[in-house]
From TrEMBL:
SMART domains in the cross-refs: LytTR (SM00850), REC (SM00448)
Signal peptide: none
Protein name: LytTR family DNA-binding domain-containing protein
Chain ranges of the HTH LytTR-type domain: 140-242
Positions carrying 4-aspartylphosphate: D56
Molecular-function annotations in GO: DNA binding
Family matches, as Pfam families: LytTR, Response_reg
Keyword Phosphoprotein belongs to the record: yes
InterPro entries: CheY-like_superfamily, LytR-like, LytTR_DNA-bd_dom, Sig_transdc_resp-reg_receiver
Length: 242
């Protein structure tokens, strides 16, 4: 059985040292690094892709909850903090546990027991539950190479239906979502995302130009891709022309 990787994130060295000390009896966990502020945490979580992070709430650069909103890789999360007022936010983020400093070894052991009882898949709800509960999503999670990537919707250029799935195009990567395009459209703000066709949805913020040719309308994206506008959807585009 391979060891599960751990990243310790705390702006105080004694806090990081304590986690290391309490983790020593757990041979199936391996500490791969430490971070002393939120910006380092975002960088190292995305680069190292740990299975588990011990995350302080209040840190320079970005707090723990803000770190979770920024990362692409989604690990299991155990919060460690001296401030109990963040406990509700942490559990709403579906954290494994909330260790209130100073905590004992016995309390730490209870947390590890809770972790081992959970499903071994990444804690996707950590990010999902931090997204707005009303209105439209700022980010979506899309499976990519057996992991779920946290994509800001503002970075999406366009979406195309692919059978029951949806191809999501950004400037650098194309993702394949198992969700249909109509279901995805419900999560996106219609002020920015406009239908060109039953199977195509574009982010108007990334449209370079629109032109007509032989009675058809074409949309040119900032990456040079040209997409045709279906006849039934042309009135929607024409309404945007001034």
């Amino acid at each position: 059985m391979s060891k599960r990787s751990v990243l310790i994130i705390d702006d105080e060295e004694p806090g990081r040292r304590l986690v290391r000390q309490y983790l020593e009896p757990y041979a199936n966990f391996r500490v791969i690094g430490e971070c002393a502020n939120g910006l380092e945490a975002v960088r190292d979580i995305n680069f190292m892709e740990p299975d588990l992070i011990f995350l302080d709430v209040q840190m320079p650069g970005a707090g723990g909850l803000e770190v979770l909103k920024r990362v692409e890789h989604i690990p299991h999360v155990i919060f460690t903090t001296a401030y109990d007022r963040y406990a509700i936010d942490a559990f709403e983020a579906n954290a494994v546990d909330y260790l209130l400093k100073p905590y004992t070894r016995e309390r730490f052991e209870k947390t590890m027991t809770r972790l081992e009882q959970q499903d071994s898949s990444p804690a996707i709800d950590v990010i999902n539950n931090l997204l707005p509960q009303e209105g439209f999503a700022d980010r979506i999670l899309v499976e990519h190479r057996k992991r779920y990537k946290n994509i800001p919707v503002a970075e999406i250029l366009y979406l195309k239906a692919c059978g029951d799935h949806t191809e999501i195009y950004t400037k650098t990567v194309t993702y394949l979502s198992s969700m249909g395009i109509s279901s995805l459209a419900e999560k996106l703000n219609p002020r920015s995302y406009v239908r060109l066709h039953r199977s195509t949805l574009v982010n108007m913020n990334h449209v370079k130009e629109v032109y007509r040719d032989l009675g058809k309308i074409f949309v040119v994206m900032q990456n040079g891709v040209e997409l045709s506008v279906g006849r039934n959807y042309q009135p929607l585009i024409k309404e945007l022309m001034v």
